[in-house]
């Protein structure tokens, strides 16, 4: 490394910078090709009236400026769908974090065999393709032939005999949220399990000797130590759950009765891409990217601040 | 208003205005070579083998008649067709010479300028005069014909003969009678839907609009406007929504059903009636109602009348960039001609578009009669406007019907929203 030999600091920095640049170049080129350029095109297309005729070169391009965005924000349905998406994603994120963390704690407390069974079940849910999972859940909760209704009416809830789970707005969202949580909690489980396992035993032992209660040890030692992992799990969940498409599309037949179970991604598909209005679709994509970036940015910032404050766990 | 944050935004806009998103070059002009490979795109279907066999036979016949020509057939999945066709429109070197596509896609495909106008070829084709005019109309956009009608699909009324006999009912003669019969069936047999009418079944709704003498849109001087807000169209849609009631087809079960799901419910023995297509017969035959159903044309508002059905169907088009235009047209004419229409009916049960072939087949197969009669009574088509595919994919009409059926909105409010959404898409 450059620091091994004494050298004028300015030159060393420059040499370092050049080396770093060289090392980063391959990744940089790849990122530019698969990330920067598509996003650049996405933003560009969102300023145009860009449909299939324009893509095929059969119609002239018309620069619209911010018209696509104006059309979007002046659409009442967009705001309704956005609000529902935020609520739906929040429930899914909270649900998968709680379920995943609780099961991770459980996994650290049980013997090897039940733990293995727990992990096998979780991995099974995790590896099920979204479409297959959605259909299995639909079959289970089918109005006439579903197992759930049969069991519920069998044990005395006769009102549930022909209950339609996907009809009501809240019911349909609840069912889809349950499916989303079912297939996304395993990621949280695995991450948090690894995090909890990585907390050094001697630290916990020392705290116990100092007279800290289990609650106190969890709150003051384990939680700060797994916080970075929790942050990652939360951000991942926010990004995934905000972008849910398959489950809503399959389980509510493309957005529920009269579109009352639409989320942003399905709405974008229906409004823009199925109708080949790529300009408007790109505008929705840009808005979604900005929203997710700002949510994640805010979250990372608050977590970093909280992490610094909590750096000394034995206050 | 603060000026500072808007300045960089304006600068960025100015910068962006300087460059433009990528566009492909307009399709190259085609040629008329008489040898080489003729590329053909046909839709892949659930049980493709019989279709493939018939097409292979046609290809062999064509290759024998034209030396030096090879017919290369590729199977396009129906669900993925949008991507495949977009690719062909964007890059004419990847486009086929002949392609099968749905007639509801004609208006939006025509807009890309990639398809050949076949009006001239059709006029000189002997079988062209045998085509039903209403079916030929579905191949047109802006007065030009973009495909040869290969087969058609119409819907009629399937009903349970055993249930009707048990309750002493006759097949309904009017739409009002249909609603009454449906109510009686559900009252007598609460585990059946009187008629399975999906809230997302657009092609079952439209005949109600047309039977009342209305339409969903009208064209004045080339500009389309919605007409669902009032009059006959509003009556028709309200009549359809009235079937989605607890005493016929409960909204909690039916409001979100698509056409296929409605037919599945009937085939599974869960409904007394359903509006289904000739292409659904196989599915119904394989269901539990096998041998216990009949088919009649969907009645209109007056006894003896038939509600105009939606003239769905597939066309064979020729790409403008084809280097073998003449061969492409000839192969399309071979497949869409009387001999292979009959073979395709035998293979797939696809209803022919040529009147002479229809008559011949209906004479041998009485279950076809309802569909042929429906075709003969006159069919209708969705607005031949590029905006229609957007209206369709945005579920504009189903949403209005669902809102009326579930009481989420008054009919007037739901239909005025639908009209606004339609007009926005017509542009």
Automatic annotation (TrEMBL), chain A:
It is found in: Cell membrane. The keyword DNA repair does not apply. CDD domains: TM_PBP2. The chain crosses the membrane at residues 21-40, 86-106, 118-140, 170-196, 217-239, 278-300. InterPro entries: MetI-like (IPR000515), MetI-like_sf (IPR035906), UgpAE/MalFG_permease (IPR050809). It comes from the Bacteria. Its main location: membrane. Keywords: Cell membrane, Membrane, Transmembrane, Transmembrane helix, Transport. Residues 82-299 form the ABC transmembrane type-1 domain. This is Sugar ABC transporter permease.
UniProtKB/TrEMBL annotation, chain B:
Residues 1-27 form the signal peptide. Keywords: Signal, Transport. This is Extracellular solute-binding protein. Gene3D superfamilies: Periplasmic binding protein-like II. PANTHER family: MALTOSE-BINDING PERIPLASMIC PROTEIN, MALTOSE_MALTODEXTRIN-BINDING PERIPLASMIC PROTEIN. InterPro entries: SBP. Pfam families: SBP_bac_1. It comes from Amycolatopsis ultiminotia. It comes from the Bacteria. Belongs to the bacterial solute-binding protein 1 family.
């Amino acid at each position: 490394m450059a620091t091994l030999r004494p050298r004028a600091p300015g030159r060393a920095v420059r040499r370092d910078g050049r080396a770093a640049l060289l090392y980063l170049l391959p990744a940089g080129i790849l990122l530019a090709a698969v990330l920067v350029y598509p996003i650049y095109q996405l933003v560009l297309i969102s300023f145009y009236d860009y449909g299939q005729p324009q893509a095929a070169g059969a119609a002239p391009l018309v620069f619209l400026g911010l018209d696509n965005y104006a059309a979007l924000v002046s659409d009442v349905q967009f705001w309704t769908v956005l609000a529902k998406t935020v609520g739906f994603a929040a429930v899914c994120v909270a649900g998968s974090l709680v379920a995943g963390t609780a099961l991770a704690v459980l996994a650290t407390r049980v013997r090897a065999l039940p733990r293995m069974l727990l992990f096998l079940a979780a991995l099974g849910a995790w590896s099920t393709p979204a479409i297959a999972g959605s259909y299995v859940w639909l079959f289970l909760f089918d109005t006439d032939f579903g197992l759930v209704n049969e069991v519920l009416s069998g044990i005395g809830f006769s009102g549930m005999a022909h209950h339609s789970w996907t009809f009501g707005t809240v019911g349909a969202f609840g069912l889809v949220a349950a499916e989303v949580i079912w297939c996304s909690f395993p990621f949280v489980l695995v991450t948090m399990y690894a995090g909890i396992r990585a907390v050094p035993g001697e630290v916990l032992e020392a705290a116990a000797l100092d007279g800290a209660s289990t609650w106190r040890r969890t709150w003051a030692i384990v939680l700060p130590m797994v916080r970075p992992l929790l942050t990652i799990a939360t951000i991942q969940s926010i990004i995934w759950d905000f972008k849910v498409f398959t489950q809503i599309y399959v389980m509510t037949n493309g957005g529920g009765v009269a579109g009352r179970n639409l989320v942003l991604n399905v709405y974008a598909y229906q409004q823009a891409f199925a109708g080949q209005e790529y300009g408007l679709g790109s505008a929705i994509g840009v808005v979604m990217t900005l929203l997710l970036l700002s949510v994640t940015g805010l979250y990372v910032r608050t977590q970093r601040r909280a992490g610094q404050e909590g750096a000394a766990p034995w206050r | 208003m603060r000026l500072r944050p808007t300045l960089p935004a304006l600068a960025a806009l100015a910068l962006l205005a300087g460059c433009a998103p990528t566009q492909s070059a307009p399709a190259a002009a085609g040629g008329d070579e008489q040898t080489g490979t003729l590329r053909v795109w046909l839709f892949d279907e659930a049980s493709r083998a019989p279709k493939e066999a018939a097409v292979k036979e046609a290809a062999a016949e064509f290759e024998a008649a034209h030396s030096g020509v090879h017919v290369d057939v590729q199977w396009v999945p129906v669900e993925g067709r949008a991507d495949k066709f977009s690719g062909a429109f964007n890059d004419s070197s990847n486009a086929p010479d002949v392609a099968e596509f749905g007639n509801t896609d004609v208006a939006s495909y025509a807009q890309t300028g990639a398809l050949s106008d076949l009006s001239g070829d059709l006029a000189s084709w002997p079988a062209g005069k045998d085509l039903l005019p209403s079916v030929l109309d579905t191949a047109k956009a802006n007065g030009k014909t973009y495909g040869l009608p290969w087969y058609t699909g119409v819907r009629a009324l399937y009903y349970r003969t055993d249930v009707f006999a048990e309750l002493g009912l006759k097949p309904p003669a009017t739409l009002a009678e249909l609603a009454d019969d449906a109510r009686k069936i559900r009252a007598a047999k609460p585990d059946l839907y009187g008629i399975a009418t999906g809230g997302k079944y657009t092609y079952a709704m439209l005949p109600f609009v047309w039977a009342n003498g209305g339409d969903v849109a009208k064209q004045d001087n080339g500009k389309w406007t919605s007409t669902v807000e009032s009059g006959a169209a509003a009556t028709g849609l309200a009549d359809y929504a009235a079937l989605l009631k607890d005493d016929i087809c409960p909204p909690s079960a039916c409001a979100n059903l698509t056409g296929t799901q409605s037919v599945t419910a009937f085939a599974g023995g869960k409904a007394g009636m359903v509006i289904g297509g000739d292409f659904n017969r196989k599915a119904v035959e394989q269901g539990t109602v096998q041998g216990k159903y009949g088919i009649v044309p969907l009645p209109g508002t007056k006894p003896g009348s038939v509600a105009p059905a939606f003239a769905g169907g597939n066309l064979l088009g020729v790409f403008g960039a084809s280097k073998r235009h003449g061969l492409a047209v000839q192969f399309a004419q071979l497949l869409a001609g009387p001999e292979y229409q009959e073979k395709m009916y035998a293979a797939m049960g696809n209803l022919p578009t040529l009147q002479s072939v229809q008559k011949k087949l209906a004479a041998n197969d009485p279950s076809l009669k309802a569909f042929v009669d429906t075709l003969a009574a006159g069919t209708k088509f969705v607005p031949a406007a590029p905006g229609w595919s957007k209206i369709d994919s945005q579920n504009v009409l189903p949403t209005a019907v669902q809102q009326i059926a579930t009481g989420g909105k008054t009919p007037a409010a739901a239909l005025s929203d639908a009209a606004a959404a339609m007009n926005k898409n017509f542009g």
